[in-house]
Design brief:
This protein is an alpha+beta fold and 410 residues long. It has twelve helices and 14 strands. An eight-stranded mixed sheet has the order 6-5-4-8-7-3-13-14. Strands 9-10-11-12 form a four-stranded antiparallel sheet. A hairpin with a 4-residue loop joins β13 and β14. α6 runs antiparallel to α7. The chain is globular and about 55 Å long. The N and C termini lie far apart (99 Å). The structure holds aspartic acid. The site of aspartic acid has 14 residues, from β10.
């Protein structure tokens, strides 16, 4: 006969307990054991059935932020949610390099006319600069350090139209322009018309980090260089025979050509087409996800004294924003200023949601005219773009996947 009593368990009230005779207790135990065996069988049978069922929608939810490929794979293989996450991370990492770097050594006018030995030397120089940038980024350094370093190396190289090797202006001297921009903060700095600063890109970085201004010019910039202990040199330091000869040829050509037309953007023909060669620039994405860009130039051969091109103009020759891309341009500076080219590439990606390569192509082919110039860009996802509407572009591309390419020309 079943009787209920109150029983203390572990010092707390455990509710009604049951007391019974030994025979009844034995029968009850057998019944409980049978029931447990039955439940066990049912559980096994149920799990086998459910293993053959299609995956639940929960798995698809896990893959939502990942590209379509992974979602399809999940359905096909019915892997567990935790495994899906691991696959997604690996796939994303494979698509997105940890760091990426592009540099340019200027748009090229007549690629076929570059002497072979000069061409080889330029390729070697571009590769050496690319290696320096790669070293910084691969070891976890910042994109700002990488772009400054790469541009500085190329400024010191007489083969390029920036720093040593800068073109001659109409007065027979050299005036240099440079800029740098931090895509993380949109901080930027630039110098224009400096004639005694050995590495204008370094001075531009000091303008960014040590003043409340963006652009310093001429004598004021040089005075600031002294304050920052940035090396200054005699203007003749920038002389090279190669650029001197180009300047002589250019002067002769211009003397024979019709006088330049005034600045009229609606006139599609370009009088006195400026010859473009050797401006340098660099864009980078670092492992922290920060973008940066820098550009440096001697400008255009036989330019008027005091002329400033796009290279030191933020938004024209240089731009960087972590949300979109980093851009460095080269070409006929007046056109790049007129169309705000570097910022336009950024704006197309931001507002129009254009893929970076399409944004660059549209600017070069729909906004600019053939032969205006070229640009390099790196996206926030590490995608590298180098494109031109000139005869060619000297460039180098590298990223954390092992990519390392140097190209002179097409
Ligand atoms: N964009 C530079 C300037 O106009 C020249 C060049 O890139 O070759 O000053």
């Amino acid at each position: 006969m079943w009787r209920t009593t109150q029983r203390r368990t572990g010092g707390s009230m455990a509710g009604p307990a049951i007391s019974r005779s030994p025979a009844t207790a034995f029968a009850a135990s057998v019944a409980v054991a049978c029931a447990m065996v039955l439940v066990g069988y049912l559980a096994i049978a149920f799990s086998e059935v459910s293993a053959q069922m299609p995956p639940t929608p929960k798995l698809a939810t896990v893959t939502a932020p990942v590209v379509q490929v992974e979602a399809t794979e999940v359905k096909a293989t019915e892997v567990k949610a935790t495994e899906v996450k691991a696959t997604a991370v690996e796939a994303t990492a494979a698509k997105r390099p940890a760091w990426a770097l592009a540099l340019h050594g200027g748009a090229l006018d007549e690629v076929a006319k570059i002497p072979v030995d000069r061409r080889r030397s330029m390729e070697d120089s571009l590769a050496a600069a690319l290696r320096q940038g790669r070293e910084i980024l691969a070891s976890g350094g910042s994109s700002l350090d990488a772009v400054e370093r790469v541009v500085k190396v190329l400024e010191d190289d007489p083969l390029f139209n920036a720093g040593k090797g800068a073109v001659y202006n109409a007065a027979g001297g050299h005036e240099l322009d440079a800029s740098i921009m931090d895509g993380r903060t949109k901080a930027c700095g630039a110098v224009a018309g400096v004639s005694t600063v050995k590495n204008p890109v370094t001075l531009a970085r000091f303008v960014m980090t040590r003043t409340r201004h963006v652009l310093l010019i001429g004598a004021g910039a040089e005075q600031f260089a002294d304050e920052m202990k940035v090396e200054r040199v005699d203007n003749r330091y920038f002389d090279t025979d190669y650029q001197f000869e180009r300047w002589q040829r250019r002067k002769a050509d211009e003397a024979q050509a019709a006088p330049p037309k005034p600045n009229k953007p609606d006139q599609p023909d370009k009088p006195n087409k400026p010859d473009k060669k050797g401006t340098v620039g660099c864009v980078a994405l670092d492992q922290a996800g920060n973008l940066a860009a820098a550009t440096s130039t001697g400008g255009l051969t036989n330019k008027r004294f005091g002329r400033v091109g796009d290279s030191p103009i933020i938004g024209a020759g240089t731009y960087a924003d972590n949300a979109t891309c980093a851009v460095s341009c080269t070409g006929t500076g007046e056109e790049f200023i007129r169309h705000g080219v570097a910022h336009d590439v950024h704006a197309r990606v931001l507002y129009k949601r254009q893929p970076l390569a399409a944004a660059v192509s549209d600017v070069l082919r729909k906004t600019l005219q053939p032969d205006d110039g070229a640009l390099i860009a790196v996206g926030a996802d590490g995608q590298l773009v180098a494109d031109f509407n000139t005869d060619g572009l000297s460039r180098g591309l590298a990223d954390s996947t092992g990519r390392f390419e140097v190209t002179l020309g097409k």
